[in-house]
Amino acid sequence: MTVLRLGSLLFRFHPGALLITLLAIVVMVKLGFWQIDRGQEKQAIIDRYEASEQQFVLHADNLAQAATQPDSEVRVTATLHPEYVFYIDNQIHQGRAGYHVLALAASADLNPYLLPVNLGWIPGERSRAQLPNLSLPTESVTVIGRVRLPAENPFMLGEQSFTEQPGWPLRIQYPELDKMAQALNLPLAPFMVLQSPDAEFGYVREWPVVVMTPHRHYAYAVQWFGLALAALIIFFVASREKPAAKQEQE
């Protein structure tokens, strides 16, 4: 039993309770700083998005450059491959489940690469065994939107297989472009484009810059720090030794 005296106050700390409290405080403080880091990352994304006002035309020679400038706005005139279509699963819009349609755009300016373009959200069928039926335009379309780099470690329910499905379109959990290019032997660009709501062709296109604002992260950080402080105060109150005279009266 550890004893601490602060003036007239006497505290007796049980080793087990002290260890648990300290561990809890360390975890909560780390979570607070993690939320601050996430808030700073989100703010950097917003700043980068607002700063990328210049739009540039894509061609094969600047694909690598575009891949280093996420959220930059790009444009290219291309045709959408009629067969190579991916349905990104588990996409919710206004409470309804559906898919994001990922098509591959081909252009002489991009040759030999195919540009993955997210055309937006479509509703799913009542039965998951049936995929929505849609037809892409055969004429050239203007692809205009923001560069989006796939996440390095996206959350998925399991390993994806791009070759064991019966045929096109393919239902996928997440556009792992590198694996898709290798498995399907397709020369894909290293990023995808989120088709702009201003573009003539596309489906439901609502692309929030960030899902959670920096201020929300900072608010959660304050909550974690507050919980850590509360745990420390409660521990000291619970460990305080009552005066002997008061104990005898009770």
**Mind telling me the C-alpha Rg?**
27 Å
**Order of strands, widest sheet:** 4-5-6-9-7
Most strands sheet: 5 strands, mixed, barrel
State the end-to-end CA separation: 24 Å
User: How many alpha or pi helices?
Assistant: 5
Rounded mean pLDDT score:
86
**What is the ordering of alpha helices and beta strands?**
EEHEHEEEEEHEHEH
Residue runs with pLDDT of under 50 for 5 or more positions: none
User: How big a fraction of the residues is strand?
Assistant: 25-35%
| Computed structural class | alpha/beta
* Percent in helix: 25-40%
Record field, number of beta strands: 10
Shape: elongated
Task: Describe the overall structure.
The two termini are 24 Å apart. The strands form 2 sheets. A 5-stranded mixed β-barrel has the order 4-5-6-9-7. A 3-stranded antiparallel beta sheet has the order 1-2-10. With 250 residues, it is α/β, with parallel strands linked by helices. It has 5 helices and 10 strands; from the N terminus they run E-E-H-E-H-E-E-E-E-E-H-E-H-E-H.
